[in-house]
Amino acid sequence: xxxxxxxxxxxxxxxxxxxxxxxxxxxxxxxxxxxxxxxxxxxxxxxxxxxxxxxxxxxxxxxxxxxxxxxxxxxxxxxxxxxxxxxxxxxxxxxxxxxxxxxxxxxxxxxxxxxxxxxxxxxxxxxxxxxxxxxxxxxxxxxxxxxxxxxxxxxxxxxxxxxxxxxxxxxxxxxxxxxxxxxxxxxxxxxxxxxxxxxxxxxxxxxxxxxxxxxxxxxxxxxxxxxxxxxxxxxxxxxxxxxxxxxxxxxxxxxxxxxxxxxxxxxxxxxxxxxxxxxxxxxxxxxxxxxxxxxxxxxxxxxxxxxxxxxxxxxxxxxxxxxxxxxxxx
Length: 330
Description:
The chain folds into three domains: 3-54, no CATH class; 66-106; 108-327, no CATH class. By secondary structure, the chain is an all-alpha fold. Helix 4 packs parallel to helix 8 (208-246). The protein is built from eleven helices and two strands, in the order E-H-E-H-H-H-H-H-H-H-H-H-H. The longest helix has 39 residues, at 156-194. The protein has helices spanning 16-31, 43-54, 69-103, 110-120, 125-150, 156-194, 197-203, 208-246, 251-261, 264-290, 296-327, and strands spanning 3-4, 35-36. The chain has a two-stranded parallel ribbon.
């Protein structure tokens, strides 16, 4: 049997090159079935070789398998299905919480709920006032040229009043609340996920949906129609500013025309839209917050997702409600 030995009596200074050479030689000898005797190596070299042998070889992660188009499509479908199941589960928990509230099994802390109403509703009044007035001005200003050419300046009241009362007021209010309140809900619940406060509630036997989600949803659902009526008011005020300053209409004429053309049914359609929008914004904000990961980046992504989801759902719901009202000839 062949045997490999080392004679290092004449060896002077050495570096890692010697270790690499010796290790390679030992590996080749072992593969060839040659016995290796390391007793002739310097003590330090032998220790380093033992250390190198003790450290496991790093195994690189395999490259991800590239899926076919059918595999990618299946992955997308599975992801959509998983997200749908999560949404349905969340909706079920919310419905159970509302049912418990109606039957008296779930209690709301009313002082904290009052503070939540103040945060969601009262503190939104300045931005709602500004946006509502500007929307009225924009709608009226866009019709100035055409109304002057036709000599029917009085119809600016019809344009502003009906459009704001039926649709624009509710839609603008929903967009403002999606960016302000829906994002705040997602950020608050996401921060609670990071701080493990939601886990603590679950451990204590307190359902997070009943304790955290239900009051927020109820507050936003109650406040959205009220803010919509406030937006309608200032939208008509903005239209009146344009009518008085640019169309030479008197304030009395403008208000009288508004009273004549804007019916309660127009406000009712706007309030129906606002109620639906409030539910969707509250659901999207709370859902994304509860789905948030446990990092600062995840909270930011959840907030962004809440705003985008709220606005998309609001636009879709607005189109569907418009079709329903059209079919019902309202």
